[in-house]
Write a structure and sequence with these properties.
Blueprint (H helix, E strand, L loop, with lengths): L3 E4 L2 E3 L5 E7 L9 E6 L6 E7 L2 E4 L7 E6 L4 E6 L8 E7 L10 E5 L2
Parallel strand pairs: 2-10
Antiparallel strand pairs: 1-3, 3-8, 4-5, 4-9, 5-6, 7-8, 9-10
């Protein structure tokens, strides 16, 4: 079964940047979409971005600030986050349509001064 391990989170000041990584157990295939979601305390899990082959799409909250990409040689999907805001604070999860009900530990992103 596919395994996804998120990393790269941390504490950053407003306006700063982070690059999250999602390492997959197998090859990153264009057959399946890879998503980033986030969940803040007391809130529902929120979709952030998706990559499917060469197509990318973003939530309105992420558009223009975040970029999802992949490196198939490393079996890794990335989420570059720029111009971070306090409201971006959440645990970030990657997700694969190959295992739709699987969620890993996520990586904590905290945006605070």
């Amino acid at each position: 079964q596919v395994q996804l391990v998120e990393s790269g989170g941390g504490l950053v000041q407003p306006g700063g940047s982070l690059r999250l990584s999602c390492a997959a157990s197998g090859i990153i295939s264009t057959t399946y979409a890879i998503d980033w979601y986030r969940q803040a305390p007391g809130k529902q899990r929120e979709w952030v971005a998706t990559i499917r082959g060469s197509y990318t799409t973003y939530a309105d909250s992420a558009k223009g600030r975040f970029a999802i990409s992949r490196d198939n040689t490393k079996n890794t999907v990335y989420l570059q986050m720029n111009s971070l805001k306090p409201e971006d604070t959440a645990v970030y999860y990657c997700h694969s349509s190959a295992r739709p009900n699987y969620w890993g530990q996520g990586t904590q992103v905290t945006v605070s001064s």
